[in-house]
Structures are given as structure tokens and as C-alpha cells.
Amino acid sequence: MIPEQQPALTLRQAWHFVLAAESGTLAEAARRLHMAPSAISTSIGELERAVGTELLVKRRAKGVALTATGRQVLGMARELLSLADSIAALSREDRSQLRGPLTVGCDITLGPTIIPAMLTDFARQCPGVEVDFVEGFHEDVQERLLAGALDVAFVYDAGVDPALTTVALADAAPHVLVPADHPLGDADGVRLADIAHEPLVLFDSPPLGSRVLQLLHDAGVAPQVRHRSRSYATVRSLVAVGRGVAVLYQQTALEAPYAELGVRLLPLRARAELSRPVQVALASPRSTRPSVRARAWIDVALELFTEVGGD
Predict the structure, then answer these.
(1) Which of 45, 123, 160, 171 has the greatest CB tally within 10 Å of its CB?
(2) Separation of alpha carbons 229 and 202, rounded Å
(3) What interhelical angle do 26-33 and 11-23 show, nearest 10?
(4) Inter-residue contact 164 to 284 (CB < 8 Å)
(5) Quick check: pTM over 0.85?
């Protein structure tokens, strides 16, 4: 239905409002847009007058908070901006014409290897898009996606909230991490029986920690957990100094050179049902249409992982 009068609100007002709500402060929204906070405040004030009620409450030293109406308008404004992006994209011949911000999330275990490669490829293809990224653990990244603070995020496709949709990128298969001087260090692969009596350094973060323990249980191995850590770097360091071995789910083509870290990463030799990989995926909310920038990020990721998988 076409409105009989010209709309009182503008896309720019909606854009400023969404960025302020997601950033938490007018100052941060202004920084991202290279504008003065007062200009952002004026723009949002115009939107509030068009809507007829307050959308953001300014709290001294605590940034801004959404009102009940503000939360409702936020979802509509995001959809409006997404549709505007889609319309504008119809006339674009290539990704180099894309403009605007994009906030990407990443499971903290994937960040060191995926984010640098993605930022490099994406900047080359979409130089006009300003990408900000946030790392977090599995649960944190999903919460941010559902809250609208992230456009899209790299996750392990296990234990993913049903309100999110995922695009599979690659398989991360189970591997065994041993010290470089371990007797199995030169083997082509390792069976769980080979390490059954060795102390385990457990990467203890969902969804991978529980998956490793289930893998060992299904293989009839009672793990002797010596250390637990939610940091891949700490797990690798503990293994390097001989504190135990680890079982990790890895996409080896994107991993750092393990020889330089004093460890060896070896494929797990096990029955197919035990060695099932976990997928690395890009997740986004089902409730909103991805922006044209988010879709470009997904496309570049698919291209990158296809290239890596073909090497």
C-alpha cells in the first residue's frame, strides 16, 4: 500500500537510531559514522518526533537504553535499512560499490585464523564497507546475534540456537595434539587407544569440550583430565611443555603452523561414527533479512573456504 503523504522519517534517521542502539552510546555511534554526537542526537530526535514518542533514554555515564517502543521500532528500522540495501544493490555491478558499516562476530577459537584472511579478502572486494568484528565464546556470539548487535558470525554449527540460521563453510575434523618430541609425533595419525593412558589437556568450552568428552566416552576411553582451559593458546602451550595431549576439532588448512609452536597436530584415526567433523558456519538471525553487506560477507567467506578446500 502506497502512503498518501510523504513519510515523515528518513533512512538516515533510521540508520543513526539503529547504530546508536547497537553501539550503546551516541559517542560510539558518532565515531563509527565520523560525525559529531550532537548531529546523531538531532537526527534521532527528528525520528522520535516523527514516531511521536521517545525511543532512546539517555543515562548519565551509562549510554543509552531503548524504551519499549524503541525496541519495537529497532526491529522495523533494521528491516527498513535491509530492504533499502537490497534495492540499492539492484543497480550495483560489483561489490566494490558497497558502502556502510558491518559488524561481524566470531567464535574466539576461530578468530586467529579466519578473521585476518576474511578481512583481507573482504577489504579487497568491498573497500567501502567498514568492518568491525567482535570475538566471543559460543554462547556469547549467539546472544549478540539474537540481540541484533552482530550482523553475522562465524560459529561451530553445534548447539546453535533455533532462532539462528547457518551457512556451512567447512568441516573441522577431530585431531590429536601432542608435544613435538612425543613418540607419536612422526605418525601419520593417532588412535584414541594410543593416548588412552595419557593425561588430557581439555579445551573446555562449548560446544567442543563436551563433544570431545563424548567422543572419548563413545570410544570406551576414560579421560584423565589434568588441565582444563577455554583458551586454545593455553591448551597448545600446555601440550608443548609436556603437560598432556589434547583432542581438538580443527580445519587444518586455516590453522597456524604447529611445528613453530612446539607441538604436532595429527589426524585422529577412528571409526566414521567417532570421527565425525563439526561444521564451521556463518550464522545470522532468522527473524531479519541479512543486509546486502552481510550477504557480501557470506559470499566472500564461501569463496575463501572453497579456495582453501581446493588447495
Answers:
(1) 160
(2) 6
(3) 120
(4) yes
(5) no
Cα dihedral 166, 171, 174, 175 sign: negative
> Under CATH, which number does the domain 97-168+279-310 receive?
3.40.190.10
Q: Residue 138: exposed, middle, or buried by beta-carbon count in 10 A (0-12, 13-18, 19+)?
A: buried
Domain map of the chain by residue range? 11-89, 97-168+279-310, 170-276
The cell 534517521 sits on which residue? 13
DSSP string, 1-22: ---SS--S--HHHHHHHHHHHH
> Is the model's pLDDT at 225 over the cut of 80?
yes
Residue type, 29: A
Q: 170-276 in CATH: which number?
A: 3.40.190.10
Q: How far apart are CA 284 and CA 290, in angstroms?
A: 7
Instruction: Report d(CA 223, CA 95) in Å as an integer.
Output: 49
Mean pLDDT of the chain: 86
> For residues 58 and 64, is the Cβ–Cβ distance under 8 A?
yes
User: CA-based angle 188:200:223, to the nearest 5?
Assistant: 100
Q: What's the rounded Cα separation, in Å, for the pair 144 and 91?
A: 32
pLDDT tens for each residue of 146-192: 988 999 999 998 889 999 999 999 888 899 999 999 999 888 888 98
